[in-house]
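call fold target=LPXTG-motif cell wall anchor domain-containing protein
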Amino acid sequence: MSDMVGVPSELVWVPPVVTVENIKPGDPQVRTLTLTNSNDVPVELSSELMQSGDLFGGDTPLDVSFSLSEEGRCSDNPEAIPAQGTVTVTMVAELPITAGNEYQGQSGVANYIVTATEADVCVLSSPPANPPDALPPTGVAVGGTLLLALACLPVGAALRFGRRRRRERRGS
C-alpha cells in the first residue's frame, strides 16, 4: 500500500505576444490585458523574463516590465489574485531617454514566463460590490421612511389638536 502525497497544482500562463515597433527613447509603449483566476483558490504569480536581441544590449538597453492592477488583487500579497478574481496586467516597454542612435533599426524579443501557484493567504484589496454571503437589500430605504415619518408628525399633531378642541367645545 502506498501513501498518497498531495502536490500543489501549478499553472503556467503564457502572456500574449506584444509587438513593440518604432520605439523612441523616453517614449514608453504600454499594453494592458485582463487576467482572470478561474481557480477556486487564490494564486500567486512569479515570473521570469527571457530576452534576446540587440535592443537588450549596450549601456541603455530596452526595459520591459509588467505589473498587476491594485484593484482586484490581494492586498497582503501584490503578486496574488484571489479565487475567481480578475486583474488588469500592464506591460511596459521603454527605451531610456539617454539611449543613442546605436539602437536604430535594432530588434529584440522579450518573453515573460509566468507561473501561478496556490497562494498561502489572500486578503482582497477592495471588497467585491456584493459579497457572496451578504444579504440582499430589502424593503424601503431608511431615508425615505424617515422623511415620511417626519412629514406625518405635523399632520398627526394637527389632528390631535383639532380633536381636543372639539371635545372642549362639547364639554362647555
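return ok
The chain has two domains: 10-118, 140-172. The CA atoms of residues 19 and 109 lie 9 Å apart.
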